[in-house]
Amino acid sequence: MAVTKSLRRALHIHHPKATRKTMLSKIYHWLDRRLRLQPLTQTLLEEPIPGGASWMYVFGSATLFLFGLQALTGMFLALYYVPSPDAAYDTVQYIQHEVRFGWFVRGLHHWGASAVMVAVGLHLLQVYLYGAYKPPREPMWIVGVVLLLLMMGFGFTGYLLPWDQNAYWATQVGTNMVASVPLVGDLLVRLLRGGASIGALTLSRFFALHVLFLPALIIGGIVLHLFMLRRVGPAGPWSDAQARQRREPFYPRQVFMDAVVMFGGFLLLCLLATTIEFPLADRADPSDHTFTPIPEWYFLFFYQLLKYMGGPLEPLATWVLPSLFVLGLLLWPFLDGNPERRPASRPMALGAGALFLVAVFVLLGISLRNLHAMPKMEPFVARGQALFGQHHCAACHRIHGEGGKIGPDLSYVADRRPDRQWHVQHLQSPQSVSPGSVMPPFQLEEKDLNALTSYLLSLKSGESTAPGT
Amino acid sequence: MTSSKHSCESSGTKEGGVPTGPRRTFFIWMIRVIPTVMGVSLVIPLLGYVGSPAFKRREEAWAAIGKAEDLVPNEPQELEFSRTVKDGWRTTIAKKAVWAVKQSNGAVTAFSPMCPHLGCGYRWDASARQFQCPCHGSVYDVTGKVLAGPAPRPLDELPIKIENGQLLVMYKDFKSGLDHAVEL
């Protein structure tokens, strides 16, 4: 009785106020009479959750939402982006600086990529913790792992698209790792790159993967994943007693929780997109081998691991461990024979999971610490850099993609002007060493002149040019 | 059943944990508001994003086309010049030409090379002393006035200035077929 009563009451969601028929509900009923939508909405929204709704179950929906946002912003980016080595960089700059709200759409897409990885990680953790991969949910888990791999594929292919130094060289390293696979490594790399080296074919290949192949595959996978969820039902809490306590339909409380988390995520992304800039590095230069690429943060733990495994151990890190890990992950429901779902009764599984997390975070921490310690500027040179900012030199001069185009690009000025005296003279009286120059003279104290010169002299090729420094 | 239903009704939770009453209304309301807010805050930037280049006015610059002293009074000359065209994210150099003529009163006029009727390129016939358009037979005199043909207005004049003896012209495109010049 209570069940049918609650169902009937719940069905009144399609009549928000029992007597008032809103436009929305009229449209719904018109469609329902023609398409028999009721069973569909019932399955979607009336899904009973054993143990009731919980904030712990929001991560799957959050991931789906963030993926949707990536797809949306990605589509709009594709209106202006051109996947050719000649155009890619310029089109991204165009979006960033000339298209109205271009910086916002690009920002959402950039930060959204990180957000979706976090959401995927949290979702995976929650499912693992709750033992929701155990029978009968093994196929769901396997599809989930495939979805994770596809997500990483998105991250990897997307990274190349801006075609700046970071994009190019990070992809160089990434594809080289594929080459380390024995027997088929070389073939795989050539397939991936569309040739022996990274070039135009690589870019168009990665673009097609990122925008056409991967979306098709992941959407298929998501549909399968959700279909399975509906067939087998949500796992609910790990304790049978708690599960029996109540059964609550998905709508409205779980939907509410999902919506709140989606909204929170969305607000965070908007905040990040509007406050934190991430300019492009210099245009990709295949001849500049001094550039040190840095992968996205979700690959940093692996980047760090690679550093520890040099020489004969290298293949271990480049393909053996990753392959074993992926295999282990896919087959985990079968490797873990323990039928128990309570964490307290699964010491091995929880222990392994905790160990993995600790390892990943430690590696990530080390990597981040090294990155920020990296180009430690001499205080004098740092003073010079500060002076450069104070006197607004960037209004006319460009350094590594930032600044105006009125004066010469100073990114590598020390290569062509290595003489300290020239700079000191030039700063005080540009026309005396550079006739016809429109640069105004700068009267600075000797100490400041020298600091500024030291900074200019530090701008040469061969110096690490990690972005953000 | 009925008694427990009544007692739970006001607290907002039914038997089995299904939310009811004002609590339920709150959840449903939030489920409507949140997507709406997100939708609106996306739609506005995205519309701007899509429309942005379509409605941008092309910025024009002065282009040097030649020396003022090279012009012979009442003898139009077709002067070629290169202008940088901003084509979305890229800049290309396009070759353009204008008809420049020193009028009898000494002023220099530069005409857009496109016939105001439908945009064809017209020519100067030195013997007939007329601008003639080969497409539909519009004819203009040296001042650009329509003498014959379907042209709806005289030849479009471009802004021109002389600096240091150099002729500088600002190239513009105009809508064809209208009775007065409207910039594109």
Would you kindly provide a written description of the structure presented here, covering whatever features stand out?
The complex is a heterodimer of chains A (469) and B (184). Chain A has 469 residues and is an all-alpha fold. Chain A contains 20 helices and four strands. A two-stranded antiparallel ribbon of chain A has the order 1-2. A two-stranded antiparallel ribbon of chain A has the order 3-4. In chain A, strand 3 and strand 4 (402-403) form a beta hairpin. The longest helix of chain A has 33 residues, at 200-232. Chain B has 184 residues and is an alpha+beta fold. Helices cover 21% and strands 30% of the residues of chain B. Chain B contains two helices and eleven strands; from the N terminus they run ααβββββββββββ. A four-stranded antiparallel sheet of chain B has the order 2-3-4-9, with no helix packed on it. Chain B has a four-stranded antiparallel sheet with strand order 5-6-7-8, with no helix packed on it. A three-stranded antiparallel sheet of chain B has the order 1-11-10, with no helix packed on it. Chain B is elongated, with a radius of gyration of 33 Å. The termini of chain B are far apart. The model of chain B is unreliable at 1-10 (pLDDT under 50). At the A-B interface, helix 1, helix 5, helix 6, strand 2 and helix 12 of A face helix 2 of B.
